[in-house]
Specification:
Layout lengths: L1 E6 L2 H11 L6 E6 L2 H4 L3 E2 L7 H10 L4 E4 L2 H5 L2 H7 L3 E3 L7 H4 L1 H11 L6 E4 L2 H8 L6 E5 L8 E4 L2 H12 L10 E4 L5 E10 L3 E9 L2 E3 L3 E4 L4 E4 L6 H21 L5 E11 L2 E8 L6 H8 E3 L1 H9 L9 E3 L3 E9 L11 E2 L11 E5 L2 E3 L5 E3 L3 E9 L2 H13 L6 E2 L6 H5 L3
Parallel strand pairs: 1-2, 1-4, 2-3, 4-5
Antiparallel strand pairs: 6-9, 7-8, 7-9, 10-11, 10-15, 11-14, 12-13, 14-19, 15-16, 17-18, 19-24, 19-25, 20-23, 21-24, 22-23
Helix pairs in contact: 1-11, 8-9
The structure holds adenosine monophosphate and glycine.
């Protein structure tokens, strides 16, 4: 099978490794990829946002399956354009990707289907939104409706901060994303990222992970795209998985099919385990980053055949797969200034080659290799250090060995990945 993988982050580096390990894959091309991916397979300099160029690439390279990493390509209609050319795509159409690209769409679907989520209201103007604040209690959860790269959520402790956040969103801090607002009930509890593979009609559980959203140790600092992850989590018991599939994933798939927009791809439920049970924080229409990396570190099977079965609507005939009993932990190494204004261009030394640290892996997430051969930071989240082990402590220790081998003074990372689970004694 000839596979084109779209994206350039740590998520795509992990997917590229797993696709490269798939016995069915004879050719793997990644667009645009990154220097870490270039070390294991071919890359093509085509942006993940350039739908016509990606389609041309898929046609000229006689690609059988396109696997889409980032939401931006999905929301731009890559799956729709590939369908026109009869090329199988693992990733939803633009309409189905609304589960991620429109919070208002998802909240309305949840309400109609009785899927547990925070109470909410949607607004098209700042005045109406501010008037509504007077009728509810602080803290206030204010979200831009559209895609905002994980930064479209403000949790305001008081009325004044909430009012300012509303004005900022409406006045265009998030571009078009802020034109419509969602205000939600504030929920408390631990968060779990839950992943299901979907073929439009059926879904199968892939795995769960815990993300670490805040920038700094002790859950301080701004929300980010994710600073670390581990898998498995002790919450994901077989009963929990059955419950989430039955009350969240399956009704969502059925509703999407009925709406004429069947969902094919990864349905990623961000769940909060509240005192009254799990509730949906958000859906994403793609693999989480960095959660995907810890799932792929444990994945055993032919990933390409599995994703092809989803893309062709025949998950029932998909090959067997499993996640190993190992625990995987991941530490994100980010550029100073991330998430607001990461400093780009700083040099990274001491790169950890394959197998340099037993059971440790270094993935590239936002790097570039310059003509002088030096590796430099080219994004917010720059490197991912992964450790595998028989338990979380061993996995975390190995991940930090990988981190500590890197010489990059302009980077920062959290030192407390896995703290919740480790404090539980798990
Ligand atoms: P989202 O982009 O919707 O995933 O939100 C980002 C983060 O904001 C979530 O992972 C939560 O930590 C937090 N958050 C979002 N919605 C709520 C809510 N209704 N109550 C409390 N925290 C929330
Ligand atoms: N790590 C959170 C996300 O991928 O949205």
């Amino acid at each position: 099978m000839r596979v084109l993988l779209v994206g350039s982050g740590g998520r795509e580096h992990a997917l590229a490794l797993a696709l490269n390990n798939s016995p069915s894959v004879t050719f793997l091309l990644v667009a645009p990829g990154n220097p870490g991916i270039a070390a294991i397979t071919r890359i093509a300099p085509v942006s993940a946002e350039d739908v016509p160029a990606l389609v041309n690439l898929a046609v000229s390279e006689r690609i059988d399956l396109v696997v889409v990493g980032p939401e931006i390509a999905l929301a731009a209609g890559l799956a729709d354009a590939l369908a026109q050319k009869n090329i199988a795509c693992f990733g939803p159409t633009k309409a189905a990707a609304q589960l991620e690209s429109s919070k208002a769409f998802t909240k309305t679907l949840c309400e109609a289907k009785g899927i547990p989520t925070a109470a909410f209201a949607t607004f098209d103007s700042a005045e109406e939104a501010i008037a509504y604040l007077g009728t509810i209690q602080a803290p206030y959860v204010i979200k831009a409706d559209g895609l905002a790269a994980g930064k479209g959520v403000v949790i305001a402790p008081d009325f004044q901060t909430a009012k300012e956040a509303i004005h900022e969103m409406v006045d265009g801090r998030f571009g078009g994303a802020g034109a419509r607002l969602v205000i939600e009930e504030f929920m408390t509890g631990e968060e779990v990222s839950f992943f299901a593979l979907c073929d439009g009609k059926q879904a199968t559980y892939l795995g769960s992970a815990q993300d670490h959203k805040r920038a700094f140790d002790g859950e301080r600092g701004p929300n980010t795209g994710g600073m670390g992850a581990y898998s498995p989590t002790s919450h994901a018991t077989p009963e929990f998985v059955r419950d989430i599939m039955a009350r969240f994933i399956e009704p969502t798939l059925a509703a999407m099919e009925k709406l004429g927009m069947p969902f094919c791809g990864v349905l990623y439920a961000g769940l909060m385990l509240t005192p009254t049970g799990p509730k949906l924080v958000e859906y994403n229409a793609r693999f989480g980053d960095p959660e995907c990396q810890v799932l792929m570190a444990r994945f055993e099977g032919d990933l390409a055949r599995l994703l092809m079965a989803c893309a062709q609507g025949r998950l029932g005939a998909a090959p067997q797969f499993r996640l190993s009993d190992q625990t995987a932990a991941l530490v994100v190494m980010a550029a100073q200034g991330y998430p607001d204004d990461p400093i780009k261009g700083s040099e990274i030394r001491g790169e950890v080659g394959a197998q340099a640290i037993p059971r440790g892996v270094l993935l590239h997430a936002g790097t570039r290799r310059d003509e002088d051969g030096k590796l430099r930071a080219a994004g917010g989240r720059v490197l991912n250090a992964i450790g595998l082990g028989p338990d979380l402590q061993a996995a975390v220790d190995t991940a930090y060995q990988v981190v500590d081998a890197i010489d990059w003074p302009m980077g920062f990372h959290r030192r407390d990945i896995g703290w919740r689970e480790l404090h539980r004694g798990g």
